[in-house]
Design goal:
Number of helices: 15
Oligomer: single chain
Radius of gyration: 36 Å
Strand content: 35-45%
Largest sheet: 5 strands, antiparallel
Shape: globular
Mean pLDDT: 81
Number of strands: 44
Protein name: Jg11068 protein
Structural class: alpha+beta
Distance between the termini: 75 Å
Low-confidence stretches: 1-11, 101-110, 680-684
Length: 768
């Protein structure tokens, strides 16, 4: 045990230590200036070392072992006044950094951490305050606490403020708890900082008390920011989205020059300098020479590592003065800067511990200069070598072209995993037409998928797929990405594939791409369709020289429900074709069977009178204005159908209950009326009744009118009550008794059907 830590090498300021005791995982390193403690830790082990010991030969006695095997798995560790840890379950533990033994210290085992809080996602220690994100009972809170020691060992949390964070996008990300995707950063604002950034948060007040800007993320792709002060407690904070990145964010750090800047590093090797002033929308972006596994900001220098090499970047955001220098350390797992000693402390994947001064020139690797090369005039003395050089130049040109293709392929694979970005770039919609001539009236450049004769079939519907790419600033990039790509469309109904289409995309069609698809509906009688639209791109020779990879660059599903199949053109039904028989096929079969076998069998023609299913929608007092909303129809249908429905539904006869509307959805008839007798049932003056023999169509149209009447429920707030709970319970009890009676007494179906309609009307009564 006396050889657990060996001192191996010392050269100028460079030291390399070999840790030989058994480790369960590679070590991370953390440091705090106030107590000058260096912490080496992994999932289950924690070692402490005083930073002043780095200048002397280190032995086992220099280390203080906090835990050789903790009872929990450490997810995050912070060195503050005390040692703070979060496990994978979100529990916050604390350990007093009282290395010297005292009477109080003997009361507790050194392996015994204090459990202070639960449901913690991320913590940050800033200006002797503990900032944390807490997910509790489905709500997200930003906590600010102080750590108060009862003695030298036992610690308690003193709450300063606890505010609720409300944002639909943030709560959606938190539906799956991913602690490793959380980012939390804090910075205190002075008066000039606050004046520069308050336009971002739409703040009009002046700085009256210390304000903190809190940067948070829950997917390492999108950053949000909130402003909070120590006096606010129990308030609701609305995060403002400040940045969305194409790859994972590693860290966020504040840098104060003339103004406040956020330095955001991406794991792909990109560093973003985000000014927090009027130039907020023009960030400065720099691309480093390698990926980022660890990065810290030291004055005007950026020190980073990709896990193999370690680099120092100066003047990073200046194209002319930027400079990169490589350090000698290799296979770096983690590193930190000790302010008191001015040294870097690095851990590696091979149990090595490096320490060195960042200003020591001997710690840098020097690039090969021109004097290290042999002059070409002494090496090449004839044309043969010149021709070989030209051949190599041509080969390099080919390699450059291949590299550009590979760049496009890598960009394609990256965007294929960011459908949220692709949905912002490409907008897709599908509209239904009864006549091909109505599509031509739109004045669009069309791509036809079938023979021209199939676009003039009176038994067909025509679907216009409209795709538009919003690429004003990145047209050249997307042109390279969409080269050699194809649009694949699958038309599905009840999980059955009805039709598939595949069209090649040309570069000149990127801005707008319109596809007209005919579909013969005579025998289908379909009232709902799903269009599965994908843009796929081939990446050649991925697995080997003969096998290609197809990736879905963009994917979108558009569902068309029953209201999209409402027929507006009935004139075609009055046309009589002389070549078609007067009787239908069903009628001819019936006549043939009756003539041939009527003397042997009693043939009964089944009536086609089906039961009408009805659904109801409660109307508001202003329902007439809502039903006459022309913009709603135009947003959902093409111009012809929108004009037809607006004319029918907004007519005075229909609105005043003097007539009902009959619509054809596919081959089904649908009746719509407004109940408004005003005597037998006062509630009936505020209901729409939708009836059809097909209950699925009736329900679908009922939902359509519900969205129309309630304006897609945009006026309703979260937590708003929609029905009276006591009336609802009473209604359910009555329906339960009625159902029980139908079952026990075996009443006819008509009695059950009356009960079903009574339930719907009673349900409307309970609506608030």
């Amino acid at each position: 045990m006396d050889k657990n830590v060996n001192y191996n090498m010392k050269m100028n300021s460079k030291k390399c230590l070999k840790i030989q005791n058994e480790l369960v995982d590679n070590l991370n390193v953390a440091f705090n200036l106030k107590n000058t403690v260096i912490v080496l830790w992994n999932k289950y082990q924690i070692l402490l070392l005083d930073a002043e010991e780095l200048d002397r030969p280190i032995t086992l006695q220099n280390f203080h072992i906090v835990s050789q095997n903790t009872d929990f798995e450490i997810h995050q560790l912070i060195v503050a006044k005390h040692l703070l840890c979060i496990d994978n379950e979100g529990n916050l533990f604390a350990y007093s950094l009282n290395i010297k033994p005292t009477a109080a210290a003997h009361k507790r085992s050194r392996h015994n951490f204090q459990e202070l809080e639960h449901n913690i996602l991320r913590v940050e220690w800033y200006e002797d305050l503990l900032f944390s994100l807490q997910l509790e009972m489905g709500k997200l809170y930003l906590r600010i606490d102080e750590i108060k020691p009862n003695d030298n060992v036992f610690l308690t949390l003193k709450s300063i403020s606890k505010n609720n964070i409300v944002n639909i996008n943030v709560l959606h990300l938190l539906s799956v708890k991913k602690m490793d995707k959380c980012i939390l950063y804090c910075y205190r604002l002075n008066e000039s900082d606050f004046d520069n950034i308050k336009h971002i948060f739409k703040e009009k007040k002046r700085l009256s008390q210390p304000q903190f800007i809190i940067i948070i993320s829950f997917d390492k792709l999108t950053l949000y920011a909130v402003l909070v002060d120590l006096e606010s407690n129990g308030k609701t904070l609305a995060p403002v989205k400040i940045l969305t990145c194409p790859s994972d964010i590693y860290s966020v750090t504040a840098m104060k020059e003339n103004v406040l800047n956020l330095i955001i590093s991406l794991t792909s090797g990109t560093v973003i300098k985000q000014p927090m002033n009027i130039n907020f929308n023009t960030p400065n972006i720099a691309h480093l020479n390698t990926a980022i596994h660890k990065l810290i900001l030291l004055n005007d220098e950026i020190i980073y590592s990709d896990g193999i090499t370690m680099w120092v970047s100066t003047n990073t955001f200046s194209e002319s003065d930027a400079k990169l220098r490589q350090l000698f350390a290799r296979c770096i797992k983690d590193f930190t800067y000790t302010d008191g000693t001015g040294k870097m402390v690095c851990t590696t994947y091979s149990k090595l511990l490096y320490t060195f001064h960042i200003k020591d020139e001997s710690c840098y690797l020097f690039p090969i200069t021109a004097s290290d090369y042999y002059s070409a005039e002494h090496l090449f003395n004839n044309m043969t070598y010149l021709h070989r050089i030209m051949e190599e130049v041509e080969k390099n040109d080919g390699i450059i072209k291949d590299i550009k293709k590979e760049e496009n392929y890598i960009t394609t694979l990256a965007l294929a995993n960011r459908q949220d970005i692709m949905n912002e770039i490409i907008k897709t919609g599908v509209q239904v037409y009864e006549n091909y001539e109505d599509i031509l009236k739109e004045g669009l450049i069309l791509n036809l998928t079938n023979n021209l004769s199939e676009y003039f079939d009176r038994h067909s519907l025509y679907f216009l797929i409209r795709m538009a790419a919003d690429t004003p600033n990145n047209h050249d990039v997307l042109e390279n990405i969409f080269t050699d790509s194809k649009i694949y469309v699958a038309i599905l109904s009840e999980h059955k594939n009805i039709k598939t289409i595949c069209i090649k995309v040309f570069c000149d069609q990127l801005q707008t791409f319109n596809i007209a698809v005919p579909l013969r509906m005579a025998k289908l009688n379909i009232t709902d369709l799903c269009f599965d639209i994908k843009i796929v791109k081939k990446i050649p020779k991925v697995l080997d020289s003969r096998q290609n990879l197809w990736t879905a660059l963009y994917s979108k599903q558009v569902t068309l429900t029953a209201e999209h199949f409402i027929k507006t053109n009935f004139t075609s039904d009055t046309v009589r074709l002389l070549k078609e028989p007067e009787d239908s096929i069903q009628q001819l079969l019936y006549k043939t069977c009756y003539k041939q076998y009527g003397h042997l069998f009693r043939i009964t023609k089944v009536s086609e009178d089906f039961l009408q299913w009805s659904f109801y929608i409660k109307l508001q007092n202003t329902f007439k204005e809502v039903l006459q909303n022309e913009m709603f129809y135009k947003a959902h249908f093409n111009a012809t159908k929108a004009k037809f429905l607006l004319k029918e539904i907004s007519s005075e006869e229909f609105l005043n209950s003097r007539k009902h509307i009959s619509l054809m959805v596919a081959n089904e008839k649908l009746d719509i009326e407004i109940l408004n007798d005003g005597f037998s049932n006062p509630l009936s003056r505020s209901m729409i009744k939708v009836s059809c023999a097909n209950p699925l169509i009736a329900l679908c149209l009922r939902n359509f009118f519900s969205n129309l009447v309630n304006n897609n429920f945009s006026r309703h707030n979260p937590g708003q009550e929609y029905f009276n709970l006591f009336k609802e319970i009473s209604t359910l009890e009555q329906i339960e008794k009625g159902l029980k009676k139908c079952v026990e007494e075996r009443l006819p179906f008509k009695d059950f059907f009356k009960l079903y309609e009574q339930f719907q009307i009673s349900l409307c009564e309970t609506l608030v």
